[in-house]
Amino acid sequence: MFINFLKKKSTQGYNLIQNFTFTIVKNIKKLEELVPQVRRDILRMVHGVNSGHPGGSLGCAEFFVVLFFHVMNSKNQFSMDGEHEDLFFLSNGHISPVYYSVLARNGFFEISELSTFRKINSRLQGHPTTHEGLPGVRISSGSLGQGLSVAIGACLSKKLNGDKSIVYSLHGDGELQEGQNWEAIMYAGSKKVDNLISTIDYNKQQIDGSTEDVLSLGNLKKKLESFNWIVFEVDDGNNISNIIEVMDIAKKETKKQKPIAILLHTIMGNGVDFMMHTHAWHGKAPNDEELKNALSQNKETHGDY
Amino acid sequence: MFINFLKKKSTQGYNLIQNFTFTIVKNIKKLEELVPQVRRDILRMVHGVNSGHPGGSLGCAEFFVVLFFHVMNSKNQFSMDGEHEDLFFLSNGHISPVYYSVLARNGFFEISELSTFRKINSRLQGHPTTHEGLPGVRISSGSLGQGLSVAIGACLSKKLNGDKSIVYSLHGDGELQEGQNWEAIMYAGSKKVDNLISTIDYNKQQIDGSTEDVLSLGNLKKKLESFNWIVFEVDDGNNISNIIEVMDIAKKETKKQKPIAILLHTIMGNGVDFMMHTHAWHGKAPNDEELKNALSQNKETHGDY
Amino acid sequence: MGTTDLKNYSFNEKIDTRTGFGVGLLEVGKINKNIVALCADLTGSLKMGDFKKNFPERFFQIGIAEANMMGIAAGLTIGGKIPFTGTFANFSTGRVYDQIRQSIAYSNKNVKICASHAGITLGEDGATHQILEDLGLMKMLPGMTVINTCDYEQTRKATHAVANFLGPVYLRFGRPKVPNFSTEIPFEIGKGIKLQNGNDVTIVATGHLVWESLEACKKLNKKGISCDIINIHTIKPLDEDIILESVKKTGAIITCEEHNYIGGLGESIAGFLSKRKPTIQSYVATNDTFGESGTPRLLMKKYGLDSETIVEKTIKLIEKKNQLSSK
Amino acid sequence: MGTTDLKNYSFNEKIDTRTGFGVGLLEVGKINKNIVALCADLTGSLKMGDFKKNFPERFFQIGIAEANMMGIAAGLTIGGKIPFTGTFANFSTGRVYDQIRQSIAYSNKNVKICASHAGITLGEDGATHQILEDLGLMKMLPGMTVINTCDYEQTRKATHAVANFLGPVYLRFGRPKVPNFSTEIPFEIGKGIKLQNGNDVTIVATGHLVWESLEACKKLNKKGISCDIINIHTIKPLDEDIILESVKKTGAIITCEEHNYIGGLGESIAGFLSKRKPTIQSYVATNDTFGESGTPRLLMKKYGLDSETIVEKTIKLIEKKNQLSSK
Ligand SMILES: Cc1ncc(C[n+]2csc(CCOP(=O)(O)OP(=O)(O)O)c2C)c(N)n1
Ligand SMILES: Cc1ncc(C[n+]2csc(CCOP(=O)(O)OP(=O)(O)O)c2C)c(N)n1
Ligand SMILES: [Mg+2]
Ligand SMILES: [Mg+2]
After folding, report:
1. Does position B299 have pLDDT exceeding 50, yes or no?
2. pLDDT band at residue B302, thresholds of 50, 70 and 90?
3. Domain range spanning residue A99?
4. CA–CA gap between residue D287 and residue D202 (Å, rounded)
5. What is the pTM of this model?
6. Is the minimum distance from the CB of B17 to ligand 2 under 6 angstroms?
7. Residue A302 covered by a domain
8. Which conformational region is residue B19 in: left (phi greater than 0), alpha (psi within -120 to 50 degrees), or beta?
9. C260 to chain B, closest Cα gap in Å
10. Chains near B, with 3+ CB pairs < 8 A?
11. Which of the 8 DSSP states describes residue D58?
């Protein structure tokens, strides 16, 4: 129960813990403890409305936990401009469940609000949006392929403002089939956008099947390097220590005239045995029986919403 | 004057030279002789309406002459479907002057029609289009970045039809900044579209300056190879023998599970000294004085329109 | 004012329009071997699976690259293929407008752009996916035929009609299960369908709003208001005659569509009536807002796209008509 | 019917609207250092060179990648920048509709989409570049402000207004040199401008058609027809009051725009009049066709966008109005 009170942020006037000294949680065990709770949130949110995207969300649970509880340097109070704090953009907006869970657990809004996911009049839209004013979200996504351009724009804005913080982004691997990504990849590589760390959720799955079958990405590392990016590859992207390590290294490589990509090999549906290693749960909710089974595999560590 | 009567093609009922045995003009000298005439056409067309794109057109004169008079296997009568003949798609439609000149000189329509370029009620639109029924044109272009996808579609159509002929396309180098190209490059590479030979007019110039300054393409060969393409590079892409040679080699590499790209290093404005090696004449017409100068550098070999 | 005997439209099942497309596509694929299909990683959602299974060599999985899909479709027509592209409505139109414009519409290529999950009834995915502007986008393209079907059977028939039609077509359908009532009703591109005869008001409806307008008609009839109900499935070219004839009789028109009132069918009708016979009009459509997540039914209610809204707006419209004529 | 004393609008020079944008951009750039500019390889055509020269660090050359440009612009707003994007109108709208929709409009980002070479007066480049649907595209987006200026001075002023306005804006202007007559006329977003007072017909014009309508007005006046001339520079939000007041007086309206009659300003006006006061209307606009190469002047004549066409259509419209009222 410790983590969701670490920081309280909001634009809506919740009780704020002011003057809270920002603490980077270095304790891997504690991060690991949070993961099953995030998985439970994802599963229960998606089950609750019988729609949404558990597969990609589960595969990125460890990444989000590390990013928000360990890596990013952010302020207590959420502001759209995010000056002098690290920013994050989710390009593959369909994995909103993991984003919302971690935002809530990180204090951006009340955990209880997770129960409104995808319901009418909610701030937790099917895909993340600024339109309803949810703290933590700085751009709408859902239509794939647009997030990298936005992240680059934020990088340029930071440079103009003399703001040394870093911009993070996350993208699906199937999403990289969208051409706008390659415009942005070319721009960032050629124009030396070096305050950017973009992670690819490299789960090798998309809606219609494996990415290999649908439209192979071939050698993605080679591709990105040919566009002048620094590329790190993490073989087990569901391992917290690995993620911490690569993010620490990546951070040190910023400000060196090149954008940074992290190919995070993840397992879609990670943490729920019958959802793993398949595209089947990309956008399908578990039924009651399946939910029970899935939850039994993940302990309630921080209290369900 | 021999060349413009080699083939007469049209859908409009011009006099057709029937049963004309298709002759591949192997005589490099005769191809070379045509080039200054094509340049004259380009210059006079653009001057005539004080608009249009001489730079890229001049740089590709040799390529078009070789493609249409040596490489492509096409029928006497133009048909939209182009079954069992090689097809060509111009993606960088702004270099229509060279396209029109070579189409006319190759018998697709009357040479005199070149005088209608960019004038109201003409079939020779600023950018090539099927809309006015000009023989030789199978797709509209002008808005950049769309032609490679279309060429791939034609390749797939040929494969379905058991048609062994080849699809050729031409693209600007600046044009490759458009993301749709990379969608198409990924598709052709991953899906093994191997009846396609795509040439890049690698003149390193675009509207606002050198491609290096505007948005560098970096190592283009490495990029395309990382997308599973076979890449040939021609250092002097304004040399007829070089073009013939590379096209012959490329043809032999088709049907080998990979698409083929030719990086044709050309000189923008080639053949007119004051237009060469600069982006200044990308889309600017010469005035009377400049035209005279330019024409004086290029002999009338086949009769002006 | 007065009631009329209503035709009774019944249905055996609720079924989604996109299944009508999937079934139709398989059928036309069997008839004409030049028909090919392309999909951008949404084969199941578009119900193209059966076509793919039966004609694997005529099915092209493009990946998540809609612009490339439109260009490839245009290229496939060269050599005689008839390509049907499939993806959600937003990615079929807004995402690829310039590609459709140049490579398909201006090039006059025989491509059938088939778009599922149109409008707000897409539901839970929310506003980024709920395009409410696609009819407007496609109607502005010279040479484009624009169709929005209302139920399973109309969609299936439209798929056949579109396959036999020469020229670019935009075919719009949706995600939710809706009453399948038009089994006996023929379908012809460009020809509106008179569903009910009445005198007090003309109700023109398209897509999912057709069933709502039939429901509204029943309720209005009970209140003593009789309605002409016209199903305009072809937004372009518009069947002006059937509308004109009706408004000459009723003197008031209400247009019902799952679309922004700006730029949609309603504006097209106001546009042509303003030239021929200016008529008081009311709009059942979204009110220039983005959509949001929710169930289709709740969203239709919240955004004023249900039969209740049609009833309310019709009553107000008739009041306005009477005020105007008594002036 | 009757003539009126016409206000005289004179001009010292013909100058393109895009130069008004370029000058305005430099001016606002000097005033507000948060203003940044982005261009997709058309700096000269957009007249952004002076901004680039004066503020090199605030100018972003994106290359030929319009989708990326829109996304980068959206991202730049985070941290307080006010991005002005510049490319031709087609590549500012149709090419990037979904990007504008999601990353700018739905995200409510303070991006100014500045579009040159709109409409048929782009001239010789031809149809692929002559977008006649951009007003329709942009007006359908919730929250988008849509402006089409008529001359150098109005464009310059609009650039200032837009810089001071919070929210996404589409600012449309053109390529050819046109009379610069509105030096003394103030500009306010959303506020139509009454240019002439008359009684027989309301002429609403936007963009390059404003000068044509003033010319037409003079000719019509000589024929004894007096016109209300309204310059609607803001297509959205539309100044409904100024139009309504005028048609209440004249009973007939003609809308003039360099745009497809489908989906443009004319349909917006027909749409709102059909709710408030159905009025006989005539359209000076392109007739659902693509454009073609030619000089701006010849094209305006061929596609019915010149003062002569306005005169002809006005005369016919008044005949129709009289027929209707004598019924
Ligand atoms: C432009 C666009 N096209 C199509 C879709 C539909 N869609 C949503 S998720 C998805 C698959 C994405 O694959 P990937 O990025 O690998 O994500 P994962 O399935 O691994 O979560 C598709 C095609 C979309 N949202 N946006
Ligand atoms: C989508 C699109 N964006 C912008 C333009 C405007 N434009 C025409 S040609 C050109 C430069 C193209 O550069 P390149 O492909 O290198 O051709 P080159 O200048 O070498 O002839 C641009 C930006 C366009 N025609 N289409
Ligand atoms: Mg994936
Ligand atoms: Mg070039």
Report:
1. yes
2. very high
3. 2-296
4. 21
5. 0.96
6. no
7. no
8. left
9. 28
10. A, C, D
11. G
